[in-house]
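Subject: Interface between my chains keeps coming out wrong

I've been trying for a while to get a sensible model of this assembly. When I model each chain on its own everything looks fine, but I need the whole thing in one frame so I can look at the contacts. Pasting all components below, labels as-is. Any help appreciated, I'm running out of ideas.
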Amino acid sequence: MVHDRNAVVREVPEYGRHKGYWKRFMIRHRDAVMAAVILMPMLAFWLLLSGFPTVFGFMLGFFRWVGLADSPKFIGFDNFIRFFKDPIYTQSLWRSIWLGGLVTSITLLAGFGAALLMNLPLWGKGIYRSIWYIPAVTSTVATTQIFNLFLDTNNGVINNVLVSLGKEPIVWQYSVGWGIFWIVVYSAWKGVGGAALLWLAGLQSVDHSLYEAAEIDGAGRFGKLWNVTLPGLKPIATYVVITSLIGAIQIYEQVLFITNGGPYGQTEVLVFRIYRDGFWDFNLGMAGASSLIMAIIVIVITVFYYGWSTSSDRRTTIPLKPLRKEK
Amino acid sequence: MRSSNARARSFKPLHLFGHVVLLTVGIVLMYPLVFMFLAGFFTKQEFASTVLGIFPIPEEPTLRNFISLFQTTGDADALMYFRNSLFRTAYMTVASVLTSFLGGYVFARLRFKGREQLFLLLLATQMIPTTIAIIPTYLEFARFPFMGGNNVFTGGTGILDTWWVYLIGGPAINIMGTFLVKQSLDKVPIELDEAAKMDGAGTTRLLFQILFPLQLPIIAFIAITSGLGTWNDFIVPFFYTNSDTLQTLPSAITRLSSVGNSPGAVVNYPLIITLSLGVTLPALLIFFFLQKYIVQGLANTGIKG
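Reply #2:
Try treating it as a single job with all components included. I did that and got this:
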C-alpha cells in the first residue's frame, strides 16, 4: 500500500520535485522553442513597423480626422462614398490605372525586344545588359532632379536645344500632356533594364531541344519565336506582367518630383493623392480610405493572377513584389 | 558551344542590327547619368552663367564638387549626409541579411506547429502596398510611449526626429529575404545538418560556418537589394526626421528640390548635382562589382521560384 501511494504521488507534478521538467520540455520541443526564440523578436518588430501601421491605416478610412490636433470621429463609410463621388479621387484612381498600364506596356515591350536581341550570341552582350540595367540602381530622387534640369523653364537643356534650332521654348510644367509624357519616359527609362533582364532569364529557361525540333520541322526565325518562344514564356510572362503592373499603378515618386501633381492637380495619381492628403492637407481619413481602396485593387489583381497562373501552370508560385524597397 | 561560336564569327545582318539597337538605346539610357557626371565639373558661377547644351563641357573643369562631398562647405554638410547614409545603409544591410537568414532557417529547417500557415500569412502580407503605411507610421512614431517627452501616448514628438527612426526598422523580419533563403535552403540536403551535428557542431556553428557560406549568392542578392533600397530611400529620413544632422543624401536632395522648397523658389542645382553624384556613384560602383549576383538573383526570384 505504502509503495503504491508513493507511486501515485510521483506522477502528480509538484513544485520542486521535477527538476528536469523544463529541460525535458526543451528537448522535446527543441525546434519550436528555437523557432520562437528566433522569430518572436523579429515578428514583434515587424508588427510594430508594418503590421500595426497597415491595419491602423485601413482603420483611418472609417474616421473623420482632419489635422493632427483634431480628434478622430467615427463616420462609417462616408469617406468611401466621398471617394467615389469626388472627381478628384475618381480621376486620380483612373489615372493611376491607365498610367500604370501605359508604363507597364511600354517598359515590357521595349524590354522584350531588348531581351530578344541580348539573347543573340553577340560579342559583349554582358556589357549591354549592365548598361541597360544601370538606371534601375540609381536613386529616384537624384535622377528625377537631372530630368528636371532637362525640363527647366529658364535654362533647361531641351528648351535650350529648341531655341538653338529656332523653335519656341515649351513650358513643360504648364501642360498636363507633357507632364504625363515625362513621367512615362522617366518610368520607362528606369524600368526597361529590369524588364529586359527578367525576359532574358525567361528566354534562357525555354527548352533548347524544342528549338532544334522546330528547326528540323523547317521553322524559320519567326516561326520559332511564335511557336516555341512565346508559348514557353507564358508562365513567366504572367508573373512579369502582373508584378510590373502592380508596381506601376503605385508610381508616385516620379510624379512627386517631376510634376508635383501639377498643373492644378491634373497629373495626380492615387498614391500621390494619399501622400498629399496625409502630409499636406492632413486629411487622414481620406488618406486611409484611399489606401484601403488601393490595397483592395492590388489584392484583387494578385488573387486573379494566382488563380489563373496556378490553374494554367504551377511553375510560378512566387510572392508578388519586386525586391527593391526596404524600410 | 561550337556552333554558337561559328555563328558569332560569320557576319549576320541581324547581329549588326542587335549591336546597333542595343548600343544606341544603351547610350540614350546612360545619357542622364553622363550629363550628371559632366555637370559635376562646373563651378557654381560657371554653371549659373552657362546655357546648358546636350553635353555640358565646362571651360575650367574643377574637381571641387567631388571633393566637397567629403567636406563641410558653406552650402551644406555633405560629409555628414554621406556618413548618415552610409551608417543607415550598413546597419539595414546587416540587419536584413541576418533576419532573412535566420528567418529562412527557421522556416526551412525547424519543425513546429503552424509553420506553413505562418509562412503563408507573412507572404500574403507582401501583397499590401507599403506606401499606405507612411502616414500611420508617422502617427505611431509621434505617439511612441515614453520617448521624446511623451507620457504614455502623447505630449511630445515621440521618436520622430531621432536616430530611433533609423534603428527601429533593423530587427524587423525581411519577408522577401526570408522567402529567398528558405527556397535556397530547401535545396540543401538536411543530411548536411545532421552530419555537422554528428561532428559536434552546435547550432550557431552550423548556421554561420556551414549553411551561411552555402547561401552566399542569395545572401549577396538580399544584401545588394536591401542595401541599395536603403541607400536610395528618401521616404524615412524625409518624412520622419527634421533636423539637418539626421538627413541622408537622398533626403537632403529632396529638401533642396522643388518638393522641399516653397513653390517658385530658385532650386540650387549645383548643390543638388553634387549630392546626386554622392548618391549615384557609390551605387554604380556596387553594381559594377556585384552585378553577377543581381542578375542571378533576379533570375531566381522571377523564374525559378
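Reply #3:
Confirming on my end. Chain A touches chain B through 108 residues (CB under 8 Å).
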